[in-house]
Design a protein that fits this description.
- The protein is mainly beta.
- About 10% of the residues lie in helices and about 30% in strands.
- It has two domains: about 210 residues, Jelly Rolls, CATH 2.60.120; about 120 residues.
- Strands 1, 2, 3, 4, 5, 6, 7, 8, 9 and 10 form a ten-stranded antiparallel beta sheet that branches. Strands 11, 12, 13, 14 and 20 form a five-stranded mixed beta sheet that branches. Strands 15-16-18 form a three-stranded mixed beta sheet.
- The longest helix has 14 residues.
């Protein structure tokens, strides 16, 4: 990793004056340790690297989160869902990975492939990473892990391990990233966090542009009203947020129904098939049959959608719908998620591209 560290030191001096404020997402447990170990450099300590690697066989990522930020008295019985949120920096080969509990203590400053603790219980298996997933968020259901920790299992964190025979090769942002700094986060939904926000606000919702009346689903996700096209969907979100993916919609919508059509940030969200209330959409399958747009979130039986009541990779209704009618193809708002944490760089830079190229070239990460 010598070449990678040399580039990073240049980044430190070049970007020292570009410090930007950051904000933390509500109901989110921050990462305290993140690193990876790989068989090709078994004694290497990787805790200071700006990326995390899950690759082939023998490159595993380790994460640990601070649960002390959760409200006092929260137990496993209170937790309805816990989602691991990762930012995919780049994908050189699609594939799958599994998530395990870690069965022993460790910290990012000393962990290597040789001394990494053994894997514990499987939390989630077969998490798919598409080749087009770069520069986007990936959500993984880790409810089983959080409920175990709150029930007394030691919180030694999680391990992300390529699935058996998987050819996955992916880079994830670590908390040490000098660029957009999308730290890994653990988003926990619990009954004690309070009720859902009001269905429709009379003023701009947090996360929406100043001229946009919004709908609040939770502290992280807002439906920003508007009449924008698919290509311009990000224009109704505030500068410090991102357009939500379909997976983020499912993770944060709670019991609140959409009040109007909303675009997602998927590129695009495809129609797989089926009739109203028994149909499915996907980012990994299907086709984009919507001229000038994509599938979107819309009210069941309304919102000018041709078909409604579809689910994401399931036929269970989750408020996804078919193409908007031609006369309403630009009459959609956008789902806007989370306040992104920024420290030095607001967008991808040539330096970051060089780091990605370095990763793809090897031999540092064969």
């Amino acid at each position: 990793m010598t070449q990678l560290r040399g580039i990073l030191w240049l980044a430190v001096f070049a970007a020292a004056f570009l410090l930007l404020p950051w904000h933390a997402a509500a109901q989110s447990a921050p990462v305290t340790d993140d690193t990876f170990g790989q068989a090709s450099t078994p004694s290497e300590k990787e805790g200071a690297e700006p990326f995390l690697v899950v690759r082939g066989s023998g490159s595993n990522t380790y994460l640990r989160f601070d649960l002390s930020v959760l409200p006092t008295g929260v137990t496993s019985a209170n937790v309805s869902k816990a989602m691991l949120r990762l930012f995919v920096s780049g994908v050189t080969s699609p594939g799958n990975f599994d998530v395990f509990l870690v069965n022993g203590p460790w910290n990012e400053k000393t962990l290597t492939f040789n001394n990494a603790p053994p894997l514990g219980t499987l939390v989630t298996g077969g998490v798919s990473v598409a080749g087009s997933a770069g520069r986007s968020y990936l959500l993984v259901d880790v409810t089983r892990a959080v409920t175990a920790w709150l029930s007394g299992t030691p919180n030694n964190g999680l391990a992300l391990v390529p699935s058996k025979n998987s050819t996955l090769s992916v880079l994830l942002d670590s908390k040490e990233s000098f660029f957009t700094s999308h730290d890994p986060e653990l988003e926990v939904e619990a009954a004690s966090f309070g009720p859902q926000g009001p269905a429709v606000s009379a003023a701009p919702a947090p996360g929406c542009s100043s001229s946009t009346v919004g709908q609040t689903f939770d502290a992280f996700m807002h439906g920003c009203a508007g009449t924008v096209s698919f290509a311009n969907r990000a224009s109704v979100c505030s500068a410090d947020t991102h357009t939500c993916t379909a997976a983020e919609w499912n993770a944060h919508r709670g019991s609140t129904a959409p009040a109007q059509n909303y675009w997602t940030g998927d590129n695009p969200l495809n129609f797989v098939g089926g009739p109203t209330n028994n149909c499915s959409v996907s980012v990994l399958a299907g086709t984009n049959s919507c001229t000038g747009g994509a599938m979107l979130v819309c009210p069941n039986g309304g919102g000018s959608c041709v078909i409604t009541g579809c689910g994401l990779d399931t036929t269970t209704p989750q408020f996804f719908g078919g193409c908007a009618l031609p006369s309403s193809s630009s009459a959609s708002g956008t789902l806007c998620c989370g306040v992104l944490k920024r420290r030095r760089f607001a967008t991808i830079t040539e330096l970051e591209r060089e780091l990605l190229r370095d990763f793809e070239r090897g031999p540092a990460l064969p």
